[in-house]
Design goal:
Layout: H1 9-52, H2 55-62, H3 66-72, H4 76-94, H5 106-121, H6 124-136, H7 145-168, H8 178-198, H9 205-220
Helix pairs in contact: 1-2, 1-4, 1-6, 5-9, 6-8, 7-8
């Protein structure tokens, strides 16, 4: 019997997709593992807070080693930033997807912000984590600095746009400065979260925040429209 023919170029090409499929499968598995790590971390941060959450325990919940977790997230802060980003995406889907982002209505926006606050209160560990990281992130070299700076800028732009549209439509007082309103809302929200944490959750922050947004809405709207009626 003659020796077998050497592989042709066609045979070699058939082998390449198999290797590509294996790599694709590996990447898909890695993405799934990252998703499971983020979900586990979200639970740990919500239950124990940022400081008390253990990377080793998060890894154990996912069924991987601590070294395996560090392969996907180099440190605790990197994992925390990802949790914050995922949490923000979830908030958009749960609440702000109902808002017309091209033509945001001020009263509806304030109502959704109030709903969002009530949801946050059900996740005290994440609120504690968020408050801590936002304070740390004021330093320009902090890994979460860009995230928070961009997030605050987006909120200011959204509130400012809602105010401008409200003024143009005759619903919001003409002397209202959108950026000032947005910065006030952010300052109150952050300050309320700190006071809520210091009260160990005993203070009704969600109720107080809703009443604040209602008063602000009544003050800004031409006809005194608020959130309570």
């Amino acid at each position: 019997m003659p020796d077998a023919e050497p592989p042709t170029s066609a045979t070699s090409n058939q082998e390449k997709p198999a290797r590509t499929r294996r790599r694709t499968g590996t990447y898909a598995a890695a993405d799934e593992r990252r998703r499971r790590i983020v979900e586990a971390a979200m639970g740990h941060f919500a239950e124990r807070g940022y400081l008390n959450a253990s990377m080793q325990k998060i890894a154990a919940d996912v069924g991987i080693s601590y070294a395996g977790l560090l392969h996907h997230f180099g440190n605790k802060r990197e994992l925390l930033r990802t949790v914050l980003e995922v949490r923000e995406l979830q908030a958009v889907e749960l609440f702000y997807s109902r808002l017309d982002l091209d033509r945001p209505d001020l009263v509806q926006l304030f109502g959704l912000i109030s709903e969002h606050t009530r949801f946050n209160v059900t996740q005290p560990g994440l609120m504690q984590m968020y408050t801590l990281l936002s304070a740390e992130a004021t330093a320009e070299d902090h890994p979460a600095h860009t995230y928070f700076a961009e997030r605050y800028a987006r909120i200011r732009a959204l509130v400012g746009q809602a105010v401008e549209l409200g003024i143009a439509g005759g619903k919001v007082r003409a002397d209202t400065d959108g950026d000032t309103v947005a910065r006030e809302i952010l300052a109150v929200a952050d300050g309320f979260q700190i006071q809520w944490g210091l009260s160990n959750g005993a203070w009704d922050m969600a109720g107080a925040h809703h009443e604040y947004l209602d008063r602000l809405c009544r003050r800004l709207t031409v006809d005194g429209t608020g959130l309570l009626g």
